[in-house]
Amino acid sequence: MGIQNRVALITGSASGMGRQTARRLAENGAKVVINDIVPEKVEETVAEFKADGLTVMGQVADISSKASVDTMVQAVVDNFGSLDILVNNAGMERAGALRKLTEQDWDLTVDINLKGAFLCSQAAHNHMVPNNHGRIINIASRAWLGGPGQAPYTSAKAGLVGLTRVLALELGRKGVTSNCIAPGLIYTPMWDELPEKNQKFLLSKQPTGRLGDTDDIANTILFLADDDNAFITGQVIYVCGGRSLFSG
Predict the structure, then answer these.
(1) Mean pLDDT along residues 104-109
(2) Is 238 a catalytic residue?
(3) Catalytic residue among 80, 118, 153, 238
(4) Rounded to whole angstroms, what are the CA distances from 158 to 9, 11, 155?
(5) Is residue 219 within 8 Å of residue 24, measured between CB atoms?
(6) What is the pTM of this model?
C-alpha cells in the first residue's frame, strides 16, 4: 500500500538527512511538511520541492516549545486534513569533556533531541489515534550506546530510544507504530567541517571503511512509514555500517 497520500511531518527537514527523507517520501506519494527553525531554509526547500512537482508545505517552528509544536501540528491538519507519519529528525550536539560542558550545553541538547520529539509525538498522537493509524519514527544515533565527550547527546539519544519503546507499548492497540533509527557516520555538510585528523579517526573505527549516505536513512524511514509494515514497532534499527557492533 505504500505511503500514497499519507501526510508526513519531518522535523529539521530543510537540510541533511531530514531534507532527503522529505524528498523521498514526497516522491513516493506522501504530502510532506518541511520544518525548520530558520524561515529562509524552509522557504528555499519548499520552493525547490514544489518546482519538482511534489506536494509540500512549510512550517517554521521551535520544536522545544509546546505552543510552537501544537500550532505547527494543527496547521498541518488544517491544511492537509490529517497527520499520518511523524519523523522526529531534528537534532544537534554540544560535545566536550564532562568538566567543560555547561548547563546550557546540556539543556539545549536535551531540549532539541529529546524534549522536541516528546512534544511532537504528543501533539501528533492526538490526530493519529482517532484514525487508528500512525507512524512515529525517531532518529536517534549509534552514539546512544555511549561515546566519550558526548554526555548530553548520548543521554538525549538514549532517552529517545526509551521514548520509542514507551510509545510502542502505549499506542500499539491504536494502530500507531513507533520505531527508532540509529544512524552511524552519514555524510552531511557537517562532516566537511571536521578536522582531517578527526575524520581519519572516525573512519578507522568504521567496519565498512566509508560513510553512509542520506539515502541510506531516507530509504529506511520510507520502509518503516509504509502501510504494509505495520507489525514492526518498538525497534531500534541501526543504519551504521556495522559501527554499533562495538563501542568506543
Answers:
(1) 87
(2) no
(3) 153
(4) 23, 19, 5
(5) yes
(6) 0.94
